[in-house]
Design brief:
The chain is mainly beta. It contains 3 helices and 8 strands; from the N terminus they run H-E-E-E-E-H-E-E-E-E-H. It binds zinc ion.
């Protein structure tokens, strides 16, 4: 089980409202979250926007409970109890960190197919924050 670092999570924040990656025009690599020089060839700054399907596969995951919650999640944990944060390999290539929803921690498996859904993350001083979470794709629940 991989350790999901706080800096890695924080880098995903600007992408909370849209699953859009940047495809490198030089090497074709899709950069997500989009930032600076191409992560793959480390040369190109020439990108085109691509909408991501939001579908992917769980590479690894961590179950967050009251005792283990990092500070940024502790507020949310009070309301939601135990939940799962996963490393998801998107079908387009990028690996991202996201919270899972609509499944119990015991149901999560490495290699499970998931898709992104827009959900309420938490409420802070009256402002409701939304972001992407991932939920199991239906075929995995049935079979
Ligand atoms: Zn590139």
């Amino acid at each position: 089980m991989a350790y999901v670092s706080v800096p890695l999570y924080k880098r995903t924040i600007p992408q909370r409202y849209g699953l859009v990656g940047l495809r490198c025009k030089k090497c074709g690599w899709i950069n997500f979250p989009p930032k600076g020089v191409c992560k793959n060839c480390k040369e190109s700054l020439d990108f085109e926007k691509v909408k991501l399907s939001g579908k992917g596969t769980i590479y690894s995951y961590t179950v967050i409970s009251a005792a283990a919650a990092p500070p940024e999640f502790s507020k949310q944990e009070k309301y939601g109890g135990t939940y799962v944060v996963a490393l998801v390999d998107l079908d387009e290539g990028p690996r991202i960190v996201a919270q899972l929803t609509d499944c119990k921690p015991g149901e999560v498996k490495i290699g499970m197919r998931v898709k992104a859904v827009l959900r309420r993350i938490y409420e802070d001083e009256g402002v409701i924050r939304y972001g992407f979470k991932f939920k199991p794709q239906e075929e995995d629940l049935n079979g």
